[in-house]
Amino acid sequence: MKIGIDLGGTKTEGILINHDGKELKRKRIKTEKNYDGTINGIVSMVKEFENIFGDSESVGIGMPGAVSADSALVKNANSIWLNGKPLKKNLEKVLSRKVNLENDANCFALSEAVDGAGKDKKIVFGVIIGTGTGGGIVIDQKVLQGKNNIAGEWGHIILPNRTEDEKKFNKKCYCKKNGCMETYVSGPGFANCFNLRYATNLDSHQIIKNYPKDKNSVNALIQYVDHLARGLSIIINVLDPDIIVLGGGMSNINYIYESINEKLKEYVFTDSLHTKV
Q1: Cβ atoms of residues 188 and 131 within 8 Å
Q2: 0.70 cut: is pTM over it?
Q3: Cβ count within 10 A of residue 115
Q4: Under 8 Å between Cβ of 63 and 14
Q5: What is the pLDDT of residue 24?
Q6: How many CB atoms lie within 10 A of CB 47?
């Protein structure tokens, strides 16, 4: 048996599968936004699975950010309480076994490339637009991690051609830079831009729920797709993938798929665009 855990900024979800890949048990819990609480949540999930079904062969965790090759500490996680911490070492000590950690967007991209929307495609770019914004690159069903273990991290490029208006209604990123894609297209980023512009206090779910009745929500979604297209046009110009697959909470917005492929044509450096979202 194997245990897989998706460690997100909002929720932590675990699954136990047998040697045939059949799901035996699944559980979702709220992610505690502190280091000890996050570890305790993972450990409690593993122990619950194993108390019912017996010991598992391995534990693998998809997580925000990555483990630094130099320090073995977490870096670049939008769940900032993980940064600078020896997550792998601490989990292995508590669980008394080897724990495999991998960037969550890389896990997502690989899954989609093997048996999802990117199956049989050579180059797959997987996008996470949820609590944070990340990306993973898979070529011939192999994850491209890069020399610095940051390949695909498009969430921290600056939104191309930012207008003064877009600069005004935007918050600084947790990474200390201004204008990161994450501050526009993640769930919290989308909501922050909306609330700064319209002096409201809504979360992304409420804004989307108000579409298409509320004109501000309509305008916000039009702008959201434009932001998404401008950011992804950089990826296409550099990587030229066969397909871009979206995941994370914001990927459930139907309006994105109605307009993103046409909008991309305005920004990508090509006469005809074959990459599909």
Answers
A1: yes
A2: yes
A3: 10
A4: no
A5: 98
A6: 12
